[in-house]
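Dear Dr. H.,

I hope your travels went smoothly. While you were away I took the liberty of generating a structure for the chain from your last submission, since the lab meeting agenda had it listed for discussion. I wanted you to have the full record in hand beforehand rather than looking at slides cold. The sequence, exactly as received, is reproduced here:
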Amino acid sequence: MRSCINLWIVVALVVPVLLSLRSPRGETQPRTTSSAASFSDSSSFSVKLANTFHFNKRIRDGSNLEYDFYRATCPQAEGIVRSALTRIYFDHRDVAPALLRLFFHDCFIQGCDASLLLDENDGDSNRSVEKQAVPNQTLRGFDKIDLIKEEVEQACPGVVSCADIVSLAARDSVLLAGGPFYPVLTGRRDNHQSFFEEATDEIPRPDDNVTRTLHLFNLRGFSARETVSLLGGHNIGKIGCDFIKQRLYNFQDTKQPDPSIPLDFLNQMRLNCPNNSNTNSNKEEFVTSNPMSMQALSSSVPSGSTFDSHYYQSLLRGRGLLFADQQLMAQDRTAKLVSAYASDDGSTFRMDFARVMSKMSNLDVLTGFQGQVRLNCSKPVTS
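The corresponding predicted structure, in token form, is as follows:
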């Protein structure tokens, strides 16, 4: 009976995915209306679905990962991650965008290996770690990953990697926030090393132009379409004023605002982010205490789902919050993709986002005898 259900799900989902490859718009797919209901169905996805997602072969592409990798050693692992995250989410709704961003920053630097979580670099507490790099100083959610890891360790000590927990938690966070479900294979191993210099230099910046953004993603095997789709993850969560103040008050050291910002939108953003240049506040506290809703500020068309087309509609109107987001309209090929994603109810974006997130979760992973399984996500295992 279960195999029949699996086959039905595979057919229902694979066909629209394949159709989406034919054009930027693709075919529509039903919107996720109930996150809780989706969670109950997610376990029935088979490895066949995951295999329909194309992985770039120039990188370690996750080919050694498996569907339900822990079925013999910790069969309840994914259920523990899901239930723990669900409890956290209903107390802290902002955990979804926080874990999505944490996942991206981890995978973008040397792959999905949980190196971002380390407080020690290869056992040396005096060497800088990724957490300390400027692009990572505003990341949140480390404590939530630790809570989930503790529950998993109680059930299956020393079995499930932190890298797998981060990838699963990001997938489940997207679903809880109203986004699409996508397959995540497991069997990742944790890195014992952290990459401070790489994180400092290679994480995309909020003030990057479109050329640099596309270049950084291309180095990791992502096309322009996949890049535009991934950036659509910015449609959930909040943004700290520190990310956009330069654009509002001193764009490219001109002491003037970015001239591309519509005047009414500029005034609206300045009201939310006044130029308190004398304020001496910790950056992390500032982000937490002075958050600004991306969806509200972009004045998009109201919708029943956060994972819809409002992010792209905002870019069409020149109302992207980050300079790097608005830069997607500066090049014909990315502007056409923005326009395509904005032209329906979000179905095309959701389909593409699911596919590229599955690809991202397999980016440059450690498997087999590579790496280690940490007992504490912030400390490497030393022997």
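Two observations you may find useful: The longest strand covers residues 238-240. Residues 1-59, 278-296, 298-305 have pLDDT under 50 and may be disordered.

With kind regards,
E. W.
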